[in-house]
Amino acid sequence: MKVVNIKSQAHESVIMIGENLDNLGKYIPVERPIIITDTNVRQCWGKYFPPGDVITIGTGEKIKTFDTVRYIYEQLLKLEADRSSFIIGIGGGIVCDIAGFVASTYMRGVRFGFVSSTLLSQVDASVGGKNGFNFGGYKNIVGVFNQPEFVICDLNLLKTVPQKEILSGLAEIIKHGAIADKSLFIFLEENRDQALALDLAVIEKLVYDSVVIKSEIVNQDEKEKGQRRKLNFGHTFGHAIEKTTKVRHGEAVSAGMVLASELAVKKAALAEKDSNRIADLLGKYGLPVRLEYDCHAVLETLKMDKKREGDRIYFVLLSEIGNAYVEEIAIKELEALINPP
Ligand SMILES: NC(=O)c1ccc[n+]([C@@H]2O[C@H](COP(=O)([O-])OP(=O)(O)OC[C@H]3O[C@@H](n4cnc5c(N)ncnc54)[C@H](O)[C@@H]3O)[C@@H](O)[C@H]2O)c1
Ligand SMILES: [Zn+2]
Asked: What residue ranges define each of the domains in the chain, with the CATH number in brackets?
């Protein structure tokens, strides 16, 4: 097991990579925790949950709504949960985002922890303390910042995660290598087969490195504004493609990273061979390098991006593999990239 300690203003959070769901009981400070999970995770892994009350929600982005939050509040009242209760989210990013929000707001906040059960939630949602839900057609528009006391990343749980979902996590891991850690990038190049086979030692390194990279960036952001933007590499185009084509997040981000790398080459910041290397690595993992999309719709969505200021947008570029920087780019320049004359 590898452990990462995260300190933010008032809180301390510990992320345990390679710890087992079986041992969860050791970390719970009360006799009967309240577990929030979804139907898939309960079906696959419910028999390993510690004793406690279980609230089960549905699956998919469409249930990440206030109705689901309300349902959980109602269950908490029925269970007579109070300030001394302890909430555990066991699931992917959706369960953890919702469980974190509920725990942060019910009775002005009760103690909570997570068991992250997808690769994406282990390498991304486990760090940074963001939680919340979708509202009015906007993703994650309501939420708070609040760290769980602990996150268990049980790598065995990944065995039942559909391959497409694993790919979403791998896209974020490749992103972490590209923006901050060339040796991680090389490791990904050299260990593809083991990574795709979910070899425990390889996955443990990938999750650990990702958690360290994200937590360092998030920590720096408390002092130096804007560092956190680097985590958006591939996400400006990615979000716009995701919204307009309905492909999965990881696939859209993969194509978005390729476009962002190409822009960096155009700006003479990144060597063309490095841009090709990024596309090659994504392709090697079965992630899309190009996607079909409606250029006009993507542009319209870009114009609504929350990172936009006037006709410019904060955009993440690379100067080399392992080094990202943020620059304000005119939307016109992005237009030329996806819609060449
Ligand atoms: N808080 C953050 O910083 C942060 C960061 C990234 C993403 N997110 C959020 O995370 C969500 C996506 O997370 P996700 O990709 O984990 O999706 P998810 O929670 O929807 O899980 C994906 C699917 O896998 C199933 N599943 C989960 N664990 C399983 C297991 N061990 N075995 C079998 N099936 C399993 C789920 O039921 C679901 O159908 C998005 O809503 C996104 O906004 C949050
Ligand atoms: Zn992402």
From this structure: 2-160 (3.40.50.1970), 163-338 (1.20.1090.10)
Residue 305 has pLDDT above 80, yes or no: no
Q: Tell which one of 43, 95, 97 to mutate to probe ligand 1, the residue whose CB is within 8 A of the most ligand atoms.
A: 97
Q: How far apart are the CA of 332 and the centre of ligand 1, in A?
A: 34
CB 207 within 8 A of CB 197: no
Instruction: Check residue 308 and give its pLDDT.
Output: 73
Top mutation candidate among 36, 118, 141, 152 for ligand 1, by most atoms within 8 Å of CB: 118
**Centroid of ligand 2 to alpha carbon of 155 (angstroms):** 20
pLDDT of residue 276 exceeding 70, the answer is: yes
pTM: 0.96
Q: How high is the pLDDT of residue 340?
A: 65
User: Atom of ligand 1 at shortest distance to CA of 169?
Assistant: 15
Q: Do 133 and 143 touch, CB atoms closer than 8 A?
A: yes
Instruction: Give the Å distance between the CA of 41 and the centre of ligand 1.
Output: 10
pLDDT, tens digit (0-9, with 9 covering 90-100), for 212-268: 999 999 888 766 678 899 999 999 999 999 999 989 999 999 999 999 999 999 999
- Residue 307: count of CB within 10 angstroms of its CB: 17
**What secondary structure letter does DSSP report for 61?**
G
